Structures are given as C-alpha cells and as structure tokens.
Amino acid sequence: MSNLSGVARGLPPEQRAIQAKCFHPSGVFVEFRKEEIEQSIPDRFEKIVRKYPSLLALKAKDLSLTYDELNKAANRVARAILAERGEDNEPAAILVEHGAPAIIAVLAVLKAAKIYVLLDPLYPDARLKYILEHSQAGIIVTDNKNASSAGRLAKDKARLLNIDKSDSIETQDNPELIISPDSLAYIMYTSGSTGQPKGVSQNHRNVLHCILSYTNKFHISTEDRLTLLHSCSTGSSVFHLFGSLLNGAALFPFDIREQGVAPMAKWLRHEEISVYHSVPAFFRNLVCTLPEAEDFPKLRLINLSAASASRKDVELHRKYLPRHCILAHTIGSTKAMLIRWYLIDEKTKIPGNHVPVGYSVDDREVFLLDDNGEAVGSEQVGEIAIKSRYLAVGYWRNPGLTKSKFVPDPNGEGRRIYLTGDLGRMAPDGCLFHLGRKDFQVKIRGYRVEVSEIEMRLLEHPGVKEVAVVGREAQTGDKRLVAYLVPTRQPAASVRELRSFLKDRLPDYMIPSAFVMLRALPLTPNGKVDRLALPAPEGARPELGTPFAAPRTPVEEELAGIWSEVLGLDQVGIHDDFFELGGHSLLATQVISRVMQRFQVEVPLPSLFEAPTVADMAVVIKQNQAKKAGKEEMARMVAELEVLPDEEARRFLTEEADTERRRENG
Asked: Could you tell me if residue 3 is inside a domain?
C-alpha cells in the first residue's frame, strides 16, 4: 500500500451549524477529554458514580437503579466472580436476559478484570456452544431464567455463577483492581466466512476512545436519556451502553424482540427519551405505528447506524418527528467502531437516494483502495480502509486472520490499517458514501451476515446438493436473505423442513426469508456461481408441505390479505405459518400494527408467535372483540346505574358481580 497520506478535512459549514444545535436544551455538557482514555472502563464508571451517586443510571421494564445502586449491584457480582476465578484477565461468558441483568453482568465482569463474552439467549445451542468453547471462558455468568441452558453448555468446562443469587454477598465495595487500558475488555462474535462465528477482541482504551468520540460529537450529558434497543452481544450496543453510563446519563433498555415496536412510541414519550439509536429497519417500523400528530418534545437526536439509510428515512423523520430533532447517520464496525457521521436537519438536502455516512471522526482516517491496494481519487469506488491507533486488537485466537485484515501503516507512528471489505465513494469535500459489501457479506436487520456460513449449514442437509444465498432488497427497502438450492431428490425438501433444520443451527436473523428451488445454479465463465444471474423470487406461496386452504370468513380473508401484503406473496392459506412463509420479528410488528388498526382491538406482539396462522389469529381477534364488547356493555350498565336509587343500584351491582365471578370460575 502506498499513497496513504490522506488530506484531513473538517466539517463543512452546514454540518458544523447542525452540530452546534445538537445539545440537550439544559445546556449541560462536560467534554470527554483525550487523557481520560488512559484508564479502564471501571475506573471511568466509578468516577461517574462518585460524582453523580443519586442520578438515575438505568431504568428497565420493572427496575430502576441510581448510579450508586447499579455500582453496588455490579460489585456484588464482581466479587463473586473473583471468588471463583481470581484476578486474571480471562474471558467470562454472560448468558442473561436483555436489559438490567446484562448491564449489571457486563459491569461486573469488567470490574473483576475479566473479558466479557455475550451469549445471546435466543441463539441456538450449537452456536452458543461453539462461542463458549472458542472463547475458552472459564465461567458463565447467568440468571434464573437461563440457568438451565447455561448448565447444558457448561457441563464440566466452565463454572456457573447465577447473579440472581449474588445478594448473599455482603460486600458491595469496589474491587479496586488495577486494570491497564491495554487489557482486553470484550470479545464480540460476528458471522464468519469459515462457517463459524469470529471473535473480535477490544481493549479498554479503544472503547473509551470510541465513547470520547460519541460523547463529544453528540454532546451526551447527565440530562440525556438514551435507548438500548440492541442486544449487548452486538457492536452497536457499545455506543449507548457506555455512552450513557460513562457520562452520567440514564440508560433505558427496551427489548424489541419481546415487546415489539407498537408500544415503543408511548414508551419513548413517557420516559422522555432524548437520544434514540437503532438500525434503519427498526426506525421505519416505529414510524409506521405513529399518527402524524404524535409528539416527542424531549427527543433531540435519532441515530441510525449498522445499515444504510435512504432518502425515505429522512422523509419519515421530517414527517413524524419534531423540527428540533436531528437525524444522524453513522457508520462503524466491530473492528473500528465509529468511523463516520452525517447530520441532517429540516434544511439538509440529500443528493440521490442514499444518505451519506459523512465526515471523519477524530483519530480515524478513511481511505478508498483499489484491488492493488492503491488509493483511488474522488468520486471513484474503492474498498474502505481505516487507519488508526484505536482499531480492534484483533481476532481472538486467529493470528493469521488478524495479520491479513490489520496491516501496519507504512508511515509508522503506531497506527494500523483495517481493510473493511466495504465499498465506498468519496465526494471532493471528503463526504463518504457507503456502497455495500465488496464480498457477499450483507447486513440483515443491523446484523452483519456472512452468507457462506448459511450456505455451509444448508449443505449439511441431505436434501441439498448446491446452494447460494444472497441479500436482496425487499418491498420495504430492507435487505432480506434468499436461498437458491439445487435439491438432491424429488420432491425437494419443503420450506418448513429447511427452516426447521436451520433454526437449530443459526440465529433467527440468519434464516433466509425465501427459498428458491433451481435445476442448476447459474455459473460464470470461470466456473463460479453467477450471483447476479440468480432470478428474483416470485411472489408465489412457497411449498410448505401442506395444501393451500382458502379463507372461510371475512375476518380470515382480511387477515390473509394483511399476511400477503406484508410478506409480498400472491396468496396465503389460513393454516400457513407466518414465520415459515418468510416472516420475522420486524415483519411481525407490521402485521400486529395493521391487525389492531383494522379490527380496533388490542393484540400483543407475542400473540402472533403463539397464533402464527390466519386461522389461529382469527380466533384471537374474535376473543379480544368479545372481551372488548363485554367491557363496553358493563361500562354502559354502570353508567345507567347513576340514575337508580342507591339501594337498587347496590343490589344490581351485587348480582352482576356474582354472575361475573361464576363466569370466570367456569
């Protein structure tokens, strides 16, 4: 590599003007200084605790903790970890629920000088087992809900620590360990091209440098309230998890996978959230649930990251959110963290359909390289490369891959260059446009996915001879995975069989939405699969292994129409499973939103998981309509009682109450 002495460019005037407005209305902001990255994450956190002990630190669904309370809860768990494993800087796995348990466990592992490795409870056992074995974690920190799974995974290879039983530890003082900024803080596993996930290791200094950039760019302060919508096992979680708790702000976890998007608007308003962070797909689903008159007076910043945003996202932001709320489009990676940012207000003009990822972040220099490793000029397409002192330490237990992806800076000065595999184009003023992956890696709902991992899993199925998986744009503008298969036999394996096979081996977001059977995969002249020649999936109902059954009632007909519209299918049978048709949690929120709007009844998101067919959902709607009608009738009768004499009203109410109790008791 040569010619990598890029020209540093500052923000253009219009971007500086928007950033000048990116403050909490209180005006309270304390700069995160460069010298403060030369410490550990617990050091910084404990200083914040001493400074703001009584401020709200964390508010989950049924738990609120001040900084002092959160610190003491983490200290109890940290001391239990130290009692089991000592003070070595070794991996410690965490298998707990999203929200408060995960946050307490992360802080505890770091306070105990360990390296946290998040195991998502929704991942299949095979994936969790691989991560546990590859990380060489000596302990699994778990809770009551996941203790059984943790026990299966641990067997005799790792100790178990249940944080729900750590209250017996009386000492709540800080462990007071000396932790170097060079010590590893976490290992984060991402999808791997070898068929197994890869672990990316990061140290305390680099995390703090990331939080420095995030804090100072967006002016995070003690008055802010930040969302945590991502699992702590993803790179995106780092920004808000530590961006809040290392600045005295309040963190508000919300489990979209459990609660869905429908109640989020009410939650954002009630909790007075000021900074929202998610992938664009979540944001699109959120605004689809909003009436135009919705008001979020406290919301000052929407940060969309982990996938490309479009002009449509900007239009939705302007339509549904207050004028003072700024939209930020950022790009980063597990290996380089935050690398570019772009701010948008009501006056910002978006050139083309794609929103730029914008301008430079301090101490991270971005280059575009051709296939020979030479820098390309303005408006030319090249691979995005990042030069910095603050890149990930490397791939855990994989020095060969680390050496190939992280190369020394030819100009020295202790910096390295990370080759992202992403393609980009740079405008003359230094504004970067992200153009997708150089290879076949795709982003699905904010997760980076190596399609080769899915292909290798499908090839393990006895009914699959050849396979190619690609990411295609759905009707909503989001990416979805499509698997093209050449079967080994006829009749070919059904979609139900293939999805069931993958469900035991891959996370939900890595299971293709559509399966297309081909007689042969198209090939290029050199014998490789020609992915560009793969046909777009048709809107026909997939082969599920069960015959089509048409709607029998107006309710079923309406529901089948909603299913078809959301899934992009010509027809849906009343006994077809929504998820076997290609549905997933994000699309489920759209279905529930439309069902509630069409039938004017409350339907919780979990209902679709429990009643995933049109026929089953029709029963749920009928039951909820009956309940609603019963409540309205009772309210009408109570209103009529206001005109009855007191003695007659009491007798009537007593009789009705007795009748209601007999009905409830069967």
From this structure: no
